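debug: dumping io for the single-chain case to check the tokenizer round-trip. Nothing else runs in this session.
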Amino acid sequence: MNTIYLCKFASHFYSLAVFYDESIQKEVEEIAKKNTKPFANWFDGVDRVYLPLGSNFDPEFSSSDNNVIMYFKENGYDVDWIGGYATKNGRKERIGKILNKLERLEILKRLQLEQRLRLRAEQLRRRFPGPTEKEIIEHIKKLFDDRRSIFENSPARKCATKKLLIVISQNAHDIAKMSTDRSWSSCMNLNGGSHSYNVYCEVGSGGLIAYLIEEDDKEIEHPLARVLIRRYANKIGESYAVMEDRVYGSAPTKFKNVVKKWLDDRQGTTNGLHTMQGGSDTDSLEKEIFPNPINLQDEVNFFIKNKINFPTALLKDIIKDTTYYEDKFVEKATNQVFGNGNWKTIRSVLSGDPIKYENINKLFANYILHHPEYIDRMIYELEESLCGMVIDEIDKINPQQANLIRIKLSDKINKEIQNKPQSVTGLEVKRLMRIKIQNTPVEKLLETSKEVIIYIEKEFPDYVKYIIVTIMDTFVKRDMVNTNVVTMLKPYIELFWLDGFMFDLITVFAFLTKAKGLAKFMLPKLRELLITTQYSSTRMECQNLITAIEEN
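debug: decoded output
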């Protein structure tokens, strides 16, 4: 029985079982027998190594901590996060008590707002697709439960009051429980996680795991955070350990730094291309890597000379390197990207580098202009939003050609919807229609927008507000907001003003700034929002727009 079959069989078996009972433990131990434990010499005959986190650092607030702290500040409180208190108007109270009070106020305010929106919809004789009272209450309670959990489990607070340890483990059960019976969850949760079978693959042939724990929790019953350490192997069986970027739970930056140093101090030199072992799912890593530095020039020359496609890992290393980005790599790699479906792969590499991300769009745009035979292939093989990015670059060089490509893309979207009218979802139609509007030629934009609104209103009314925001954004970016556009969109702005547009007020504000004819209608609504909003950024944008309207 091969490892992958065992993994998937175990996943099915566990889904029918009680959480991590004795039978599950035996099954994990059976799968673990296949693991050769290539890093065993790092552990001196045991399965766990304990490292001190240290105390020579200030408490470090996580992004979750900061979000809750900002929420308190927006409600007028000064926060002592470590001490567990907040103060307003000279009155000091426990954070938990204040959260209970704010939860009750939030529910009351949201229900009152919902009542006003429903009344307005009835006056306009339109269907109101808003949530029910029960849904509103459940949503707000969940939001405040999350805030309480963040406060109660904040590592910043625990770092300030308790001694913490890091445990790095090759124990099969520690790996199997990476997201089960923990304070966090993920797709690796044995209780129905979408990639739970990968857990068993990690047990059978994967790497290690690191947990952040309190000093008196050496059996890892209540860990604060974890990070998975993946195993890579080359063709001759040499292994290399790489830590995932993503930490589950909450931990100070020093957690990952200590784990990485421990790994680096023990890694040997391995050669050649290494492939990820164990589970196939990863949060942040590549499936293939070159662990040690390679000579890019020699590698590029070899693959070009021998007309061999670059391995994916090498392709990514090359595109990161500015020396070979613009010359030897371009023609070869562009052909390969279009031919082998590596477009998204390369974009993901460049996502953290805005300059190169922009360059790759220009590179493909130039290539399309010089090789028009790729136009149909690009439109029908690549995701529509990626096509749109390239078309935007083509528009800067050759607007006429860009319009022709936009028409083809629009035809493709229409065919896609027409060919599967029964199975297509509102979410999919919303995505396709957004791309269609964003890529409609200027002279047809108003007409196409009207057609799209009519279609969405009839077939998928719950998605109208999202399409309206896309239309606003497109007209603003093309500087085409005029009386006809305002007349078309005004009824929807009245209907969806607060509830429907709260998810993208920046776009709505940008449109209203240019839509002079809506000033009289908007002023009282903006003043109401200025008073009721919890968010300082919205308050500031609101005030700026009120000032601009009053001055004009």
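debug: round-trip ok. The mean pLDDT is 76.
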